[in-house]
Specification:
Immunoglobulin-like, Serine Threonine Protein Phosphatase 5, Tetratricopeptide repeat, alpha+beta
């Protein structure tokens, strides 16, 4: 039998011993009084037990302990370090340094985050400043929305997302999203897809608490413009998967599907790591063409024996009158950092325009 493939490296290994030695070497060349031994001891003691974000923070703490001078002097050293790192995620520790030690030097620190985000992202680091003084921070970020650099413009939207994954939740913006409206309006026509995607993700965050608010804003957009329609649809992806009538109607999926549907799963029994193939057979029972948003729902078995559903995007089609079509979708069933699979019978449903119309199942061994 062929050997088992090696597991992929963990993300936390971006901050391994070799990376810390490289950072220390660069800092020592920039700041001759940098205490290399203190830095290395701080980052290496307990390294294996730290998660990725804990390693980010520990690197910032170690840099502060090993660099001489005032807060602003240390930031200027780190600004010289930033272009040398060569790894966008690793540079996040520079923003973490600012967020940890610079809240009392608001304007200088916000400008430092604007500088650092060009080399990676300061989307996590800017959030404590929004919590500390939301009005002041968002006014600065509105100015960033006109910056020549797309990464700075993106930071204006991404850093102020109410529910940024891995980031501090901005509870005041969860309750009331209106303060970021000017930023999103300023960026919705941005030339960069990188920026427009952030606008869509920001709006998708808001739909989780204020779906009517988002839909009202999107209804006022000219959705005949391709880039605005793309942002709007991406922003409503969670609502569409949940079958929200207003979101479905906005994109032409408001009518109940008139179809006969059958869903099959193959193989019906599989092991973790194998590929599951779903086949959907649709036959229109309508005398007119139908616009269909097609998703599938996997009811994952939980450790407790219950289940938790996850909706996946399949496709969108225009189904002609009385037409028949077969759709095929496959995915490898494997564990992720965000999902662990458990043995048992998994139910799968076919969802069309928000309605569950067929189901099948497979057994995971």
């Amino acid at each position: 039998m062929p050997p088992e493939p090696s597991p992929p490296p963990q993300l936390k290994e971006w901050f391994d011993a070799a990376r810390h030695r490289a950072i220390a070497k660069d800092l020592a060349s920039i700041a001759p009084k940098f205490r290399t031994n203190d830095f290395m001891q701080s980052v290496l003691d307990g390294l294996e037990g730290r998660s990725l974000m804990q390693r980010v923070h520990q690197c910032a703490l170690a840099a502060d302990a090993a660099l001489p001078g005032t807060y602003q002097q240390k930031v200027r050293v780190l600004q010289k370090l930033a272009p040398r790192i060569g790894h966008e995620f690793v540079t996040i520790f520079l923003g973490d340094f600012v967020a940890t030690f610079g809240l009392d030097d608001f304007d200088f620190s916000m400008e430092a985050l604007r500088f650092f985000t060009v080399f990676g992202s300061a989307e996590f680091a800017v959030r404590p400043f929004i919590v500390a003084d939301q009005k002041r921070a968002l006014q600065t970020m509105l100015g960033w929305s006109a910056d020549p650099d797309e990464k700075v413009r993106r930071l204006a939207s991404e850093g102020s997302r109410p529910r940024l994954p891995w980031g501090m939740r901005l509870q005041t913006l969860v309750r009331d999203p209106e303060p970021t409206a000017k930023i999103l309006e300023a960026l919705k026509d941005d030339a960069s897809l990188f920026v427009r995607r952030s606008v869509a993700n920001h709006l998708n965050d808001i739909t989780k608490d204020h779906h009517d608010y988002v839909l009202q804003r999107l209804e006022a957009w000219d959705l005949e413009r391709e880039h605005l329609r793309w942002i709007a649809k991406h922003a409503c992806r969670t609502l569409i998967k949940r079958g929200h009538p207003g979101a479905l109607k906005l994109f032409g999926f408001g009518r109940k599907a008139e179809v006969r549907a059958k869903l099959d799963a193959s193989p019906s029994r599989l092991d973790l790591g194998q590929r599951l193939t779903l086949t959907a057979a649709l036959a229109s029972t309508s005398s007119r063409s139908q616009r269909l948003a097609i998703d599938y729902v996997v009811h994952y078995v939980k450790a407790s024996g219950g289940s938790a559903e996850k909706v996946f995007k399949w496709t969108e089609i225009d189904l002609p009158a009385h037409a028949e079509i077969e759709l095929v979708k496959s995915q490898v069933v494997r564990d992720f950092t965000t999902r662990k699979h458990y043995a048992g019978r998994h139910r799968v449903e076919l969802q069309i325009n928000g309605q569950r119309v067929a189901e099948t199942m497979f057994d995971l061994r």
